[in-house]
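Practice problem 4.
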Protein backbone atom coordinates (compact mmCIF):
# COMPACT_ATOMS: atom_id res chain seq x y z
CA UNK A 1 0.00 0.00 0.00
CA UNK A 2 1.37 3.41 -0.93
CA UNK A 3 2.17 5.74 1.96
CA UNK A 4 1.78 9.22 0.52
CA UNK A 5 -0.14 12.43 0.99
CA UNK A 6 -3.77 11.78 1.87
CA UNK A 7 -6.48 11.98 -0.76
CA UNK A 8 -7.56 15.62 -1.12
CA UNK A 9 -11.18 16.54 -1.78
CA UNK A 10 -11.59 19.21 -4.45
CA UNK A 11 -14.20 20.78 -2.19
CA UNK A 12 -11.48 21.98 0.15
CA UNK A 13 -10.72 25.66 -0.31
CA UNK A 14 -7.00 25.12 0.03
CA UNK A 15 -6.84 22.09 -2.27
CA UNK A 16 -3.96 22.15 -4.77
CA UNK A 17 -4.78 22.51 -8.44
CA UNK A 18 -5.13 19.11 -10.12
CA UNK A 19 -2.95 18.20 -13.07
CA UNK A 20 -5.98 16.51 -14.68
CA UNK A 21 -9.55 17.60 -14.06
CA UNK A 22 -12.80 16.27 -15.54
CA UNK A 23 -16.09 17.96 -14.70
CA UNK A 24 -19.55 16.66 -15.63
CA UNK A 25 -18.23 14.88 -18.72
CA UNK A 26 -20.90 13.26 -20.92
CA UNK A 27 -20.15 11.21 -24.01
CA UNK A 28 -22.40 9.05 -26.16
CA UNK A 29 -21.80 6.97 -29.26
CA UNK A 30 -24.98 7.58 -31.19
CA UNK A 31 -27.86 6.70 -28.90
CA UNK A 32 -25.57 4.77 -26.56
CA UNK A 33 -24.45 6.81 -23.50
CA UNK A 34 -20.95 5.85 -22.35
CA UNK A 35 -20.03 8.55 -19.83
CA UNK A 36 -22.79 10.07 -17.71
CA UNK A 37 -21.38 13.00 -15.77
CA UNK A 38 -17.80 12.07 -14.87
CA UNK A 39 -15.97 14.15 -12.24
CA UNK A 40 -12.36 13.12 -11.66
CA UNK A 41 -9.16 14.77 -10.45
CA UNK A 42 -5.55 13.61 -10.69
CA UNK A 43 -2.89 15.53 -8.79
CA UNK A 44 0.75 15.74 -9.80
CA UNK A 45 2.72 12.78 -8.46
CA UNK A 46 -0.37 10.68 -7.82
CA UNK A 47 -1.12 7.18 -9.02
CA UNK A 48 -4.85 6.88 -9.73
CA UNK A 49 -6.59 3.64 -10.66
CA UNK A 50 -9.93 3.42 -12.43
CA UNK A 51 -11.62 0.09 -11.80
CA UNK A 52 -14.98 -1.40 -12.66
CA UNK A 53 -16.70 -3.98 -14.85
CA UNK A 54 -16.06 -4.20 -18.58
CA UNK A 55 -17.99 -1.62 -20.55
CA UNK A 56 -18.26 0.81 -17.63
CA UNK A 57 -16.43 3.65 -19.41
CA UNK A 58 -12.94 3.25 -17.94
CA UNK A 59 -10.96 3.28 -21.18
CA UNK A 60 -13.20 5.99 -22.60
CA UNK A 61 -12.16 8.27 -19.73
CA UNK A 62 -8.49 7.82 -20.68
CA UNK A 63 -9.20 8.58 -24.32
CA UNK A 64 -11.03 11.74 -23.33
CA UNK A 65 -8.08 12.88 -21.21
CA UNK A 66 -5.71 12.63 -24.15
CA UNK A 67 -8.15 14.10 -26.68
CA UNK A 68 -8.68 10.93 -28.68
CA UNK A 69 -12.40 11.23 -27.94
CA UNK A 70 -14.42 14.43 -27.62
CA UNK A 71 -17.26 14.56 -25.09
CA UNK A 72 -20.59 16.12 -26.01
CA UNK A 73 -20.51 18.20 -22.81
CA UNK A 74 -18.40 18.86 -19.76
CA UNK A 75 -14.85 20.13 -19.31
CA UNK A 76 -11.50 18.36 -19.42
CA UNK A 77 -8.30 20.12 -18.38
CA UNK A 78 -4.71 18.87 -18.38
CA UNK A 79 -2.40 21.30 -16.61
CA UNK A 80 -4.65 24.23 -17.58
CA UNK A 81 -5.18 23.14 -21.20
CA UNK A 82 -8.85 22.68 -22.11
CA UNK A 83 -8.65 19.34 -23.88
CA UNK A 84 -12.35 19.42 -24.77
CA UNK A 85 -11.74 22.63 -26.76
CA UNK A 86 -8.73 21.52 -28.81
CA UNK A 87 -9.53 22.52 -32.37
CA UNK A 88 -6.47 21.66 -34.43
CA UNK A 89 -4.12 18.76 -35.02
CA UNK A 90 -1.25 21.00 -33.92
CA UNK A 91 -2.88 21.50 -30.51
CA UNK A 92 -3.63 17.79 -30.16
CA UNK A 93 -0.01 16.87 -30.91
CA UNK A 94 1.18 19.46 -28.38
CA UNK A 95 -0.98 17.77 -25.74
CA UNK A 96 0.25 14.31 -26.59
CA UNK A 97 3.84 15.40 -26.19
CA UNK A 98 2.96 15.78 -22.51
CA UNK A 99 0.64 12.81 -22.03
CA UNK A 100 1.97 9.30 -22.52
CA UNK A 101 -0.49 6.57 -23.41
CA UNK A 102 0.30 2.86 -23.16
CA UNK A 103 -2.42 0.72 -24.70
CA UNK A 104 -3.50 -2.87 -24.19
CA UNK A 105 -2.00 -3.63 -27.60
CA UNK A 106 1.61 -2.59 -27.89
CA UNK A 107 1.30 -0.52 -31.09
CA UNK A 108 5.02 -0.76 -31.83
CA UNK A 109 6.18 -0.13 -35.37
CA UNK A 110 6.92 -3.68 -36.61
CA UNK A 111 9.36 -2.53 -39.32
CA UNK A 112 11.53 -0.61 -36.84
CA UNK A 113 13.97 -2.00 -34.33
CA UNK A 114 13.28 -1.56 -30.62
CA UNK A 115 15.81 1.28 -30.50
CA UNK A 116 14.27 3.05 -33.47
CA UNK A 117 10.81 2.71 -31.92
CA UNK A 118 12.08 4.70 -28.94
CA UNK A 119 14.03 7.29 -30.92
CA UNK A 120 11.53 8.15 -33.68
CA UNK A 121 9.11 10.37 -31.76
CA UNK A 122 11.66 12.33 -29.66
CA UNK A 123 13.58 13.19 -32.82
CA UNK A 124 10.67 13.87 -35.17
CA UNK A 125 8.17 15.36 -32.75
CA UNK A 126 10.33 16.97 -30.07
CA UNK A 127 13.24 17.86 -32.37
CA UNK A 128 15.74 16.21 -30.08
CA UNK A 129 19.29 15.57 -31.24
CA UNK A 130 19.46 11.99 -32.51
CA UNK A 131 22.60 11.08 -30.59
CA UNK A 132 21.13 12.22 -27.28
CA UNK A 133 17.83 10.48 -28.12
CA UNK A 134 19.70 7.23 -28.79
CA UNK A 135 21.64 7.55 -25.55
CA UNK A 136 18.44 8.17 -23.59
CA UNK A 137 16.74 5.22 -25.32
CA UNK A 138 19.54 2.89 -24.26
CA UNK A 139 19.19 4.13 -20.67
CA UNK A 140 15.46 3.45 -20.70
CA UNK A 141 15.89 -0.02 -22.18
CA UNK A 142 18.42 -0.88 -19.49
CA UNK A 143 15.99 0.25 -16.81
CA UNK A 144 13.20 -1.96 -18.13
CA UNK A 145 15.68 -4.86 -18.34
CA UNK A 146 15.78 -4.94 -22.13
CA UNK A 147 19.25 -3.53 -22.79
CA UNK A 148 20.10 -6.53 -24.95
CA UNK A 149 17.03 -6.06 -27.17
CA UNK A 150 17.87 -2.66 -28.68
CA UNK A 151 18.43 -4.07 -32.15
CA UNK A 152 15.68 -6.69 -32.04
CA UNK A 153 12.38 -6.20 -33.84
CA UNK A 154 9.00 -6.32 -32.10
CA UNK A 155 8.11 -9.64 -33.73
CA UNK A 156 11.12 -11.22 -32.03
CA UNK A 157 9.93 -10.27 -28.53
CA UNK A 158 7.46 -11.81 -26.12
CA UNK A 159 4.29 -9.94 -25.26
CA UNK A 160 5.68 -8.81 -21.92
CA UNK A 161 8.85 -7.55 -23.57
CA UNK A 162 6.87 -5.65 -26.19
CA UNK A 163 4.77 -4.00 -23.50
CA UNK A 164 7.90 -2.94 -21.62
CA UNK A 165 9.23 -1.44 -24.85
CA UNK A 166 5.93 0.42 -25.22
CA UNK A 167 6.34 1.85 -21.72
CA UNK A 168 9.94 2.86 -22.45
CA UNK A 169 8.76 4.53 -25.66
CA UNK A 170 6.22 6.55 -23.69
CA UNK A 171 8.92 7.58 -21.21
CA UNK A 172 11.21 8.66 -24.05
CA UNK A 173 8.88 11.62 -24.64
CA UNK A 174 9.37 12.71 -21.00
CA UNK A 175 5.63 13.24 -20.41
CA UNK A 176 3.96 14.93 -17.48
CA UNK A 177 1.77 11.87 -16.92
CA UNK A 178 1.21 8.41 -18.37
CA UNK A 179 -2.09 6.68 -18.97
CA UNK A 180 -2.10 2.86 -18.81
CA UNK A 181 -5.08 1.16 -20.44
CA UNK A 182 -5.31 -2.45 -19.22
CA UNK A 183 -1.72 -3.02 -20.27
CA UNK A 184 -1.53 -6.56 -18.86
CA UNK A 185 -4.86 -7.93 -20.12
CA UNK A 186 -3.39 -9.26 -23.38
CA UNK A 187 -0.44 -10.96 -21.66
CA UNK A 188 0.06 -14.53 -20.56
CA UNK A 189 0.00 -14.77 -16.75
CA UNK A 190 3.74 -15.33 -16.41
CA UNK A 191 4.42 -12.06 -18.28
CA UNK A 192 2.16 -9.88 -16.15
CA UNK A 193 4.60 -9.45 -13.27
CA UNK A 194 7.44 -8.09 -15.39
CA UNK A 195 5.20 -5.30 -16.70
CA UNK A 196 3.70 -4.50 -13.31
CA UNK A 197 7.21 -4.19 -11.88
CA UNK A 198 8.00 -1.41 -14.34
CA UNK A 199 4.80 0.47 -13.51
CA UNK A 200 5.37 -0.05 -9.79
CA UNK A 201 8.74 1.66 -9.96
CA UNK A 202 7.44 4.51 -12.06
CA UNK A 203 4.90 5.15 -9.31
CA UNK A 204 7.58 4.93 -6.63
CA UNK A 205 9.66 7.49 -8.55
CA UNK A 206 6.73 9.93 -8.48
CA UNK A 207 5.49 9.67 -12.05
CA UNK A 208 1.87 10.81 -12.36
CA UNK A 209 -0.02 7.74 -13.58
CA UNK A 210 -3.62 6.89 -14.35
CA UNK A 211 -4.28 3.17 -14.65
CA UNK A 212 -7.28 1.31 -15.97
CA UNK A 213 -6.68 -2.17 -14.63
CA UNK A 214 -8.27 -5.45 -13.58
CA UNK A 215 -5.27 -6.22 -11.34
CA UNK A 216 -6.99 -5.38 -8.07
CA UNK A 217 -4.17 -6.25 -5.66
CA UNK A 218 -1.75 -4.21 -7.72
CA UNK A 219 -4.15 -1.25 -7.84
CA UNK A 220 -4.54 -1.43 -4.06
CA UNK A 221 -0.77 -1.48 -3.59
CA UNK A 222 0.28 1.38 -5.85
CA UNK A 223 -2.70 3.75 -5.96
CA UNK A 224 -3.21 6.95 -4.02
CA UNK A 225 -6.82 7.26 -5.18
CA UNK A 226 -9.25 4.79 -6.76
CA UNK A 227 -12.37 5.46 -8.83
CA UNK A 228 -14.95 2.71 -9.27
CA UNK A 229 -17.11 3.15 -12.37
CA UNK A 230 -20.23 1.42 -13.59
CA UNK A 231 -22.51 2.31 -16.52
CA UNK A 232 -20.53 5.48 -17.18
CA UNK A 233 -20.91 6.79 -13.63
CA UNK A 234 -18.36 7.03 -10.82
CA UNK A 235 -20.08 5.05 -8.10
CA UNK A 236 -17.38 5.56 -5.48
CA UNK A 237 -13.95 7.11 -5.13
CA UNK A 238 -11.42 7.82 -2.43
CA UNK A 239 -8.07 6.71 -0.98
CA UNK A 240 -7.09 3.21 -2.09
CA UNK A 241 -6.95 1.90 1.48
CA UNK A 242 -10.51 3.00 2.18
CA UNK A 243 -12.04 1.90 -1.13
CA UNK A 244 -10.45 -1.55 -1.05
CA UNK A 245 -10.79 -2.27 2.65
CA UNK A 246 -14.01 -0.45 3.55
CA UNK A 247 -15.97 0.28 0.37
CA UNK A 248 -19.11 2.27 1.09
CA UNK A 249 -21.17 1.29 -1.94
CA UNK A 250 -22.77 -2.19 -2.01
CA UNK A 251 -21.95 -2.29 -5.71
CA UNK A 252 -18.25 -1.65 -5.04
CA UNK A 253 -18.31 -4.29 -2.31
CA UNK A 254 -19.78 -6.90 -4.65
CA UNK A 255 -17.36 -6.05 -7.48
CA UNK A 256 -14.27 -6.23 -5.28
CA UNK A 257 -15.39 -9.43 -3.58
CA UNK A 258 -15.80 -11.13 -6.93
CA UNK A 259 -12.68 -9.63 -8.54
CA UNK A 260 -10.37 -10.42 -5.66
CA UNK A 261 -11.70 -13.97 -5.44
CA UNK A 262 -11.10 -14.50 -9.16
CA UNK A 263 -7.61 -13.03 -8.86
CA UNK A 264 -6.76 -15.33 -5.95
CA UNK A 265 -7.95 -18.36 -7.92
CA UNK A 266 -5.84 -17.36 -10.92
CA UNK A 267 -2.72 -16.93 -8.78
CA UNK A 268 -3.22 -20.31 -7.14
CA UNK A 269 -3.44 -21.93 -10.57
CA UNK A 270 -0.31 -20.19 -11.85
CA UNK A 271 2.46 -19.96 -9.28
CA UNK A 272 4.87 -18.54 -11.88
CA UNK A 273 3.40 -15.03 -11.66
CA UNK A 274 6.01 -12.63 -10.32
CA UNK A 275 4.51 -9.76 -8.36
CA UNK A 276 7.35 -8.19 -6.39
CA UNK A 277 10.74 -7.64 -8.00
CA UNK A 278 11.29 -3.89 -8.06
CA UNK A 279 13.75 -2.19 -10.37
CA UNK A 280 14.91 1.43 -10.35
CA UNK A 281 13.48 3.76 -12.99
CA UNK A 282 14.02 7.46 -13.46
CA UNK A 283 11.25 9.72 -14.79
CA UNK A 284 11.74 10.43 -18.27
CA UNK A 285 4.18 8.64 -25.43
CA UNK A 286 3.23 8.60 -27.46
CA UNK A 287 4.53 7.92 -30.92
CA UNK A 288 2.36 10.28 -32.89
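Answer key:
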Amino acid sequence: MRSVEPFVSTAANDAPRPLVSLRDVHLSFGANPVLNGIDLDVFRGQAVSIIGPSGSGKSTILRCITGLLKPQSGTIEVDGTRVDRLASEHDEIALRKRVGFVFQQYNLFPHLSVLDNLVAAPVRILGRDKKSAIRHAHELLARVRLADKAHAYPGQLSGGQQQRVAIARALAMQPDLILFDEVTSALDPEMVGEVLNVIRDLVRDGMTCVLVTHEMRFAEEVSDAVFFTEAGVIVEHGPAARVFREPASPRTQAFLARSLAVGSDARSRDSSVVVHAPIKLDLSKFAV
